[in-house]
Amino acid sequence: MQELIRVVILAIVQGIAEFLPISSSGHLVILGSMLGELGESVTLEIILHAGTLGSILVVFWQRIWALLLKDRRVIGLLVIGTLPAVVIGLTIKTQFPEILRSPLLAGAMLIVTGAMLIVLGRLNPKSGTYDRLGFGAAFLVGCFQAFAILPGISRSGSTILGGRLMGLDRDDSVTFSFLLAIPAILGATVLAIKDLIEDGSSGDTSIGILLIGATVAFAVGIVALKWLIRWSREDRLHWFAYWCIPAGLLVVILNLR
């Protein structure tokens, strides 16, 4: 029962923080350091990401269907935009895996996320649409996504900022951000499933509890994603800086002590 409660807590945090610009990876690392080995399970983290991937597919299914039928050029943009995260992500995972589990780094990067959100709030509105985005611009937005591999850097906040800097309007910067998340999260999920099959186990967490966690992350994620879309239209995303910066400072201070 204690294990189930911990997984549900992590799933709720994942569902909220994956979409709101406050960094799910940072919060999971920080919370994981408090919950022990269960919170540090990479497999659990990726399974929870799979749950939030389902949230994206539900909320954006019409856009995704349009990509498959008529906006196929955007698929190329997503491929180009995913490359930086693949290269940098695999490099960090294989060469410097310890930094992905550092609460101190997560706290410091939460402060950086807060600063990015403040910048986002000061940008003038643009009118560009993601289907007219250039391949170079898509690659640069992908670099913002690659930066978010560091725990504490919000993937949604970083890529929305990148899209706005490339001239996208508020709605399309959000849409492109989460379309870009699909191949990244799907790839990580496939690798996690491959590891589960090869290892024949999920560590100390049962498959049933993992599925419960994914379901909770999925349901909470839908609510959080709709919240983000609404606040983006109202130009309120920079308000989340008032959470990220104080939380990051607190985590850094506690870890240095």
From TrEMBL:
Species, as recorded: Rhodopirellula europaea 6C
UniProt-annotated location(s): Cell membrane
Record-annotated membrane-spanning stretches: 7-30, 42-62, 74-92, 104-121, 133-154, 174-193, 205-225, 237-256
HAMAP family xref list: Undec_diphosphatase (MF_01006)
UniProt superkingdom: Bacteria
Catalysed reactions, as listed in the record: di-trans,octa-cis-undecaprenyl diphosphate + H2O = di-trans,octa-cis-undecaprenyl phosphate + phosphate + H(+)
Family to which this protein belongs: Belongs to the UppP family.
GO CC term (a single one): plasma membrane
Membrane topology: Multi-pass membrane protein
Further comment found in the protein's record: Bacitracin is thought to be involved in the inhibition of peptidoglycan synthesis by sequestering undecaprenyl diphosphate, thereby reducing the pool of lipid carrier available.
Taxonomic path: Bacteria, Pseudomonadati, Planctomycetota, Planctomycetia, Pirellulales
Keyword Transmembrane helix: yes
PANTHER family assigned: UNDECAPRENYL-DIPHOSPHATASE
GO BP annotation list: cell wall organization; peptidoglycan biosynthetic process; regulation of cell shape; response to antibiotic
Function: Catalyzes the dephosphorylation of undecaprenyl diphosphate (UPP). Confers resistance to bacitracin.
Gene symbol of the encoding locus: uppP
Molecular function as annotated in GO: undecaprenyl-diphosphatase activity
Pfam families reported for this sequence: BacA
Keywords: Antibiotic resistance, Cell membrane, Cell shape, Cell wall biogenesis/degradation, Hydrolase, Membrane, Peptidoglycan synthesis, Transmembrane, Transmembrane helix
The name this protein goes by in its record: Undecaprenyl-diphosphatase
Record keyword Oxidoreductase present: no
